[in-house]
Specification:
With about 475 residues, this protein is an alpha/beta fold. It is about 30% helix and about 15% strand. It has 2 domains: about 290 residues, TIM Barrel, CATH 3.20.20.70; about 120 residues, no CATH class. The strands form 5 sheets. It has an 8-stranded parallel sheet. A 3-stranded antiparallel sheet has the order 9-13-12, with no helix packed on it. Helix 2 runs parallel beside helix 4. The longest helix has 26 residues. The radius of gyration is 23 Å and the shape is globular.
Length: about 475
């Protein structure tokens, strides 16, 4: 494998090895501080990060306000305080390296997160001098450059196509080009978590990342950006030897590599032991690219019982009409709330009766004029989770919340989705790994076959980084 040269940005030097910032409490100060101390770029998740009491115990995020808007304010306060504590702790872990100008710390934030701009500005104002930059995706973060520049940190936009970067560059980023640290290309068919598939791309037909990254570099050159501004390849990176032809490649310019899945299985990784154990059992194909997320984005996660239930729920779905029309001439006689009359086709009437016979006796309306059939227990949980919404997203399909204006998307809440805040908080803090959303990249099955992890070996972050540098 070709040698990896260190990256130098703003007088700070670090290995071209980037830790992916993973969601709610799946990347915290321990993992990112260790990554920076090993000479790489550690990335703290600033998405509803944990804060601690005086004894170092996690403070549960409990909401007391009676309204969604009130709970949203509590969430923003939790988010800022938690991220600030995580940054300070991570810096302390890697202080010697960081003060010597080696290694780096970023925070990761999702632009579609509820109150994202307020959280980002609040964290940056309270962590001056501790952070190198901000990594940000999930949406089109036009104000990212402006906010980063105002706070003296670099910005690392996450994009999935050259077209997306071109739009960001032309509208905003060219005004603060000196603060652009790198561009993260997150492959929508390989990366875990939320993915940037557009309507022009088929989720069932993965594209080779090389031409897409080559096009991204060409777009960056058109904007006058030098090849020394790195592109970070994110998604599907396991062994660096498999990416040898990307290193010192004139078509691609400076390249760095992001690892999101492999750092999950380290001693410093904050995820529970049951989650770590589950990762070592996965087979190829066990990661599902799906569209159940309340964000509206595609995302990739382990196809456990949680996702299989969502798949089955959407399969128990029929179209309906409020009056007899066309083929919808048969009045539905199962799952209908008192006082309602819904009309369906003959075949769908028979299907609905069969589902009701299996215990799925409750019909819930979707925004697409369809009905999904669930058990009474599932209906109660869906309604409770929708009512308990605390506004964790800027726009939520599941609860119909939005974090501005009249606080409503104006659409019917969608029972085919789920409360993402609830399930990510639960799995990160010891909840059942089969019955919660478990994000992972599509290469997670390699834990089972990679000899590095044989006999149950779980490396430290420093051991993992050393291993990566060998090409393995």
């Amino acid at each position: 494998m070709k040698a990896l040269n260190a990256i130098s940005i703003g007088g700070r030097e670090f290995l071209p090895l980037v830790e992916g910032g993973k969601g709610v409490s799946a990347t915290n100060h321990r993992s990112s501080g260790a990554w920076a101390a090993a000479g790489g770029l550690g990335t703290i998740s600033a998405v509803n990060a944990d804060s601690y009491d005086e004894d170092g115990r996690v403070i549960p995020q409990v909401y007391h306000a009676r309204t969604r808007a009130g709970r949203h304010e509590e969430l923003v306060a939790y988010a800022i305080e938690g991220a600030v504590q995580q940054v300070r702790r991570a810096f302390d872990m890697a202080a010697d390296e960081l003060r010597a100008g080696r290694g780096a710390l970023n925070i990761n934030i999702l632009w579609e997160m509820g109150g994202a701009q307020r959280v980002l500005e609040g964290v940056l104002q309270r962590t001056r001098g501790l952070l190198h930059g901000v990594t940000c995706g999930a949406g089109m973060p036009y104000r990212l450059a402006e906010i980063a520049a105002a706070n003296g940190v670099y910005y690392y936009p996450i994009i999935s196509s050259a077209r997306a970067f071109r739009a960001l560059w032309k509208r905003a980023y060219h005004k603060a080009s000196e603060w652009l640290g790198a561009v993260v290309y997150e492959d929508p068919w390989l990366a875990g978590g939320h993915n940037g598939l557009s309507n022009a791309e088929d989720p069932r037909e993965p594209q080779d990342p090389y031409p897409r990254v080559r096009e991204l570099r060409a777009t960056m050159r058109e904007g006058g950006l030098p090849d020394e501004v790195p592109i970070v390849m994110a998604g599907g990176v396991w062994y660096l030897r498999e990416w040898d032809d990307w290193i010192d490649n004139a078509e691609l310019g400076r390249i760095a590599f992001q690892f999101g899945t492999r750092p999950l299985l380290t001693q410093e990784s904050p995820i529970p032991d049951a989650w770590k154990a589950k990762l070592t059992t996965l087979e190829e194909g066990d990661i599902l690219l799906h569209r159940f997320s309340p964000t509206g984005f595609y995302s990739s996660a382990v196809r456990n019982a949680f996702l299989r239930e969502l798949e089955a729920r959407s399969e128990r779905q029929i179209a309906f009409s409020a009056e007899a029309a066309g083929d919808h001439q048969f009045e539905l006689d199962v799952g209908v709330p008192r006082g309602r009359r819904w009309f369906v086709t003959r075949d769908d009437l028979l299907r609905a009766r069969a589902w009701a016979g299996q215990g799925f006796t409750e019909a819930l309306k979707t925004p697409d004029n369809t009905l999904v059939f669930v058990t009474p227990e599932s209906k109660a949980e869906i309604r409770r989770d929708q009512a308990d919404c605390m506004g964790c997203l800027s726009h939520c399909q599941f609860s119909a919340w939005k974090d501005h204006g009249d606080f409503s998307t104006g659409r019917l809440a969608d029972p085919r989705s789920f409360c993402i805040q609830k399930t990510l908080q639960d799995i990160a803090h010891g909840g059942n790994v089969e019955h919660n959303l478990m994000f992972a990249g599509h290469g997670a099955y390699r834990f089972k076959t990679d000899p590095f992890y044989s006999n149950g070996f779980v490396p430290t972050v420093r051991q993992l980084v050393a291993r990566l540098l060998t090409g393995d």
